[in-house]
Amino acid sequence: MNNFIFSNPTKIIFGKGVENEVGNEAKKYRKVLLHYGGGSIKSSGLYERVVQSLQAAGVAFVELGGVKPNPLLSLVHEGIQLCRAQAVDLILAVGGGSVIDSAKAIAMGVPYQGDVWDFFTNKGRPQEALPVGVVLTIAAAGSESSDSTVITRSEGLLKRPCSSALIYPRFAFLNPELTYTLPPYQTACGVADITAHIIERYFTKTPQVDLTDRLCEATLKTMVNFGPRAVANPTDYEAHAEVMWAGCIAHNNLLGCGRVSDWGSHMIEHEISGIYDVAHGAGLAVVIPAWMKHVYREDLNRFVQFAVRVWGVDYAFGDSERIALEGIERLKQFYHAIGLPVSLHEMNVADDRLEEMARKATQNGSLGNFKKLYEQDVLKILQLAL
Ligand code: NZQ
Ligand code: ZN
Fold first, then answer.
1. Measured between alpha carbons, how far is 316 from 163 in angstroms, rounded to an integer?
2. Hey, which residues does 151 pair with through a beta bridge?
3. Domain 11-178 coded CATH 2.40.170.20
4. Is ligand 1 within 6 A of the CB of residue 222?
5. 305-323, pLDDT tens digit by residue?
6. Could you give the 3-state DSSP secondary structure of residue 285?
7. Which regions of the chain carry the CATH code 1.20.1090.10?
8. pLDDT in tens, 319-343
9. pTM higher than 0.90, yes or no?
């Protein structure tokens, strides 16, 4: 186990009806930017409840909607100008990962003299940021208690991440009932993203990480048990509660303590969703099994452990390689059974830009840690994903 610091400062307020308390949490700030997406919070009635809660607590606010899935830098620039003009001192993201990520980028950009995109291209590091609060409407990205944001710049179709301890949300309201209005496909995309966040941490070369292995396996098994139930039953509170809490745990880095994580599959997926604007979770359902097939020989025992402990593959199934491959196959079947694509073709992504994606993904060096991935590896993985 490696040395580590674990500090997750996000206050989680979890359960039925909790979003009605958002005004009380926000009232210590002078002025709030209410930030949201394309309209789901208005049709669900959540917008009204949040506004009422802010007004009841006497919180002044301005608003900026219109965040798109795979959130755009152009709206982030707009938000920065608005926050400066209105002297906003809290950004309240009401929505999913895209809204939260847009809020985080605005938060870093307001006090910065240059272009906030600098932080996504390693040309600068944020020194300060406005606080961000969250009312979560989809269990998926884990951005509600992560230190990361992922933004897309239309010019060049570049989707890039930025991490900083400054952008952990101060508080996050998690009411599983708010996810009832999601289309089942979007719930399934969230399930895939959550499992991917665990898998990116699970496949490590760091020796002797038994506790975090078992925490990862437990969280994955919760997703295997409750993910399909949540997709099939939009109003099953228990299933959505398990998935929402798992989504938060999967990405608040508890599961990454003391071990080197991978993140190669995420970087490859960002190239796909940057160009084709597919849902991040769907892209991961395609990339992760292909990545696994490319790398499993790096540490066969770890893949055997995954197959046996997570998927219940019996040791009598065959030799180590067959057991490992069966684990990968069961993950793929799991994604397929909840309605996700498991190949690029199923996602309507043709084979004509694979080289471009492989080149862009590796232009600043290799990806991943379990196996270092160079341009040819990424190309191979994308070909395996076809
Ligand atoms: O825009 P609205 O109208 O709200 O609709 C959204 C959007 O179309 C809809 N939706 C959300 N909650 C809903 C709902 N529809 C009905 N009822 C509800 N309760 O769902 C669609 C997708 O929303 P989005 O926010 O894009 O989903 P998600 O949470 O999966 O976020 C994906 C983004 O997060 C990034 C991804 O790359 C992607 O851009 N990630 C961020 C991470 C982080 N900051 O730590 C880590 C992740 O690995 C990921 O990369
Ligand atoms: Zn993700």
1. 44
2. 160
3. no
4. no
5. 999 999 999 999 999 999 9
6. helix
7. 184-384
8. 999 999 999 999 999 999 999 999 9
9. yes
Q: Is the CB of 247 under 6 A from ligand 1?
A: no
- The residue whose CA is least distant from atom 8 of ligand 1 is 69
What topology does CATH give the domain 184-384?
Dehydroquinate synthase-like, alpha domain (1.20.1090)
Token pair in block for residue 82 = 């608005």
- 24: how many CB neighbours lie within 10 A of its CB? 14
User: Over pLDDT 70: what percentage of the chain?
Assistant: 100
Ligand 1 centroid distance, CA of 337 (Å): 21
Q: Which atom of ligand 1 is nearest to the CA of 149?
A: 44
- Contact partners, residue 333, CB within 8 Å, separation at least 6: none
Residue 95 Cβ inside 6 Å of ligand 1? The answer reads: yes
Mean pLDDT over 353-375 rounds to 97
Q: Give distance in angstroms: CA of 216 to centre of ligand 1.
A: 23
pLDDT of residue 131: 98
Residues 258-306: pLDDT tens digits?
Answer: 999 999 999 999 999 999 999 999 999 999 999 999 999 999 999 999 9
Q: How many CA atoms lie within 13 A of 73 on its CB side?
A: 20
